[in-house]
Amino acid sequence: MSANDGNAEETPQERLERLDRVLREAEELRAAGERDEREQRVREAREKAEQERLAKEKAENERKEREAAESRKRPAGEAPRGTPPKKTRRGKGKAREEDEPVESS
Fold first, then answer.
1. Which of 15, 54, 83, 98 has a beta carbon 3.0–4.6 Å from 79's, enabling a disulfide?
2. Is the pTM of this model over 0.70?
3. 28-60 as b/e, with b when 16 or more CB fall inside 10 Å?
4. Which residue ranges make up each domain of the chain?
5. Main-chain dihedrals φ then ψ at residue 101, nearest 5 degrees
6. What spans are recorded as compositionally biased (Basic residues) (predicted)?
7. pLDDT in tens, 75-91
């Protein structure tokens, strides 16, 4: 609409300027929407990574706590479960009263 009369038809130049302005506003809204979506995806990825880290940390703490509880229950000198038995030398050199532990490499 022309500035001098609200009822008058808009000139081609005014129409072009209005359409350009509408197009710019639409582009700004689209860009803002894309930016918001990107930021949301980044936030969600960070939250997921943090949840995974916390779950991993919790599982590790629970494992350590279980191992500590098992260790307290185990008689002194008994190896933890899942520990392979120590290798011993048998039949090497002179006969011995007791087997000697072998150092693992």
1. 83
2. no
3. eeeeeeeeeeeeeeeeeeeeeeeeeeeeeeeee
4. 10-72
5. -65, 145
6. 84-93
7. 666 666 666 666 666 65
